[in-house]
Write a structure and sequence with these properties.
Blueprint lengths: L1 E5 L7 H12 L6 E5 L1 H11 L3 H13 L2 H4 L4 H9 L9 H9 L15 E8 L4 E5 L7 H8 L9 E3 L2 E5 L8 H6 L4 E7 L11 H25 L5 E7 L13 H17 L12 H22 L1
Parallel strand pairs: 1-2, 1-7, 2-3, 7-8
Antiparallel strand pairs: 3-4, 3-6, 5-6
Helix pairs in contact: 1-3, 1-10
Length: 305
Amino acid sequence: MLAFVLSGGGNRGALEVGALQVLFEHGIRPQMLVGTSAGAMNAAYIATNPTLEGAQELAELWLKLTKEDVYPGNYLTMAWRLMRGKDSLFPNENLRRFIEAHMPPGVQYFGDIKGVRLYITATNLNTCRLEVFGDDPSVPLVDALMASAAIPPYFPPWNYNGWQYVDGGVTANLAVDAALERGATEIYAIHVAGSEMRSSVRGLPSIASQSIAAMLSHQLQRELEEAAARPGVTIHYIKLEAFQDLFFWDFDHAAEMIEEGRRVMEEYMRSPKPLAAPRALPQWVIQPLWRVERWLDGLLVRNMG
């Protein structure tokens, strides 16, 4: 089963649109779509029309998206919300209205999606675990999308079925495992990536943000290696790194991002290189490491005694 897995990326999610256009132009059509945050929005829209035409319509949607559709207000309203003890810097009503206004007629629940399987991830704030919407066809799409996009501190947690949810990217920004667990055997994993290297990280918010990014990057690398090592599984990993300095509420560069997404995917398609399984260490390396581990374990036990 062929799956597209789309990461979160905020206003840089337009990069994914260009990549999707190229996949459809090459005749590659998904049987499954898995999305997180902005990737969830893209996945849900494509699921209603998984064709090149659908990808072009999604591009038009990004081109008309504005700051007020997502982040209404300004610095004063942000400060006012903080002073009043609100749960977020922005309300989420505008985003909800935008999603509802652009859902195709007759599409309200996961069960209304035909011809392709759609899954959307979010983080359950109460259990601190990743949850995947889509297994239950009766779940409203708007609830899943709002849960997946509730990125703190910008948006408040989304309440659904007695639970609080935040952005799926908090626990897994590129949900490859969710696709594998549901039967995917070939995956195009499209990752809107952040910076993994900075010359200087200063200030508490930046330090916290970069620490979380490092943790998630390590987790993703491990998941990709484990996925590539599975028999009968092919992973195409496409990394979209451009526009990292774009301010989070700047939606004026969608056209350039779509073109950049196209460029990166076209380059990959000229010479596809699926991820290879990590090479196992030879025994002459493993045996000494095993002996050192046993020695350290024994030393720890003696010291505890």
